[in-house]
Design goal:
about 280 residues; six-stranded mixed β-sheet; single chain; mainly beta; four-stranded antiparallel β-sheet
């Protein structure tokens, strides 16, 4: 019998600690999420749980103009670039545990051209975005994945929810009153079996995909506002964006439910909004 990545992950998580390697750094994660708890393994989802995922929001965070194309940045934006942010919108008290792909449900992020990766940002996740560089060149428009974080010390929220009068971003006229950033305590971020160098200065980055990996937050993460929306990616491209996602959401009672883009199996719940074209 072929042992899949998630089978291995399940076995590891039944032990006290999970040992993983990422970019030559070894991390120990306390056994507290995903398939770790016996009661979660036998958990039968309720009707309320099946409605936990309310929406997948694709926000046009920033639309570049001619000034952006000719601003002399180290990494100039291609003409026609749009910066998208993707949010997982959940019911109150539920938490996002991971974004994943497996043999039955591929995960992919794709552009009909290429994704923009800013050389000065040097960030593969929202957690890596340096606040001190946020107004340098096109750092604020870099492409990355995340579990809430949009830069160090700040969580990403839809701009329509940003009611503050102060913006960290002063170099973009449409963002200098509403930047979609809110100060907060950031969760842990753990990639499983993913090569995130795709988001690090790759000028040919076109399709990010996995059938055997995930990015996750041990213990789960909730949105910073009452709407409970968690940012999972920022993607800038001058092409057409498409994606297919699968997410695992933790329930208020300690169980979990998996939402997939199509062809659900077992207790999986199909959610059409996880597919975008």
């Amino acid at each position: 019998m072929k042992v899949t990545f998630f089978t291995k992950l399940f076995i590891l998580l039944r032990n006290r600690y999970l040992f993983i390697s990422f970019l030559s750094a070894f991390l120990f994660i306390n056994n507290s999420f995903l398939f770790a708890q016996d009661k979660a393994n036998n958990y039968l989802i309720t009707h309320q749980d099946s409605l936990a995922l309310e929406n997948v929001i694709v926000e046009k965070y920033y639309i570049a103009d001619s000034n952006d194309y000719n601003d002399g940045s180290v990494s100039p934006l291609p003409k026609g670039s749009i910066t998208y942010r993707i949010f997982i919108d959940m019911k109150p008290n539920y938490n996002l545990q991971m974004v994943y792909g497996n043999q039955n449900h591929e995960l992919f992020l794709e552009s009909s051209t290429y994704f923009f990766n800013d050389k000065e940002a040097d960030a593969i996740t929202g957690f890596n975005v340096d606040l001190k560089k946020i107004n340098k060149g096109n750092v604020a428009l870099d492409s990355w994945v995340t579990m809430g974080a949009a830069c160090r010390g700040f969580t990403g929220i839809p701009r329509e929810e940003d009611t503050s009068k102060y913006s960290l971003i002063s170099t973009r006229s449409s963002l200098n009153k509403s930047d979609g950033l809110i100060k907060g305590v950031l969760p842990d971020f753990v990639p499983f079996n993913l090569d995130l160098t795709f988001f690090n200065n790759d000028s040919t980055a076109k399709r990010f995909a996995t059938t055997n990996g995930a990015w996750a937050s041990p213990g789960g993460v909730k949105g910073p506002t009452a709407e409970n929306r968690v940012l999972i990616a920022q993607l800038t491209t001058d092409g057409k964006l498409s994606f297919q996602l699968n997410v695992q959401i933790g329930t208020p009672t300690g169980g979990y439910i998996q939402f997939v883009a199509n062809k659900p199996q077992g207790q999986e719940v199909e959610f059409k909004g996880l597919s975008y074209k």
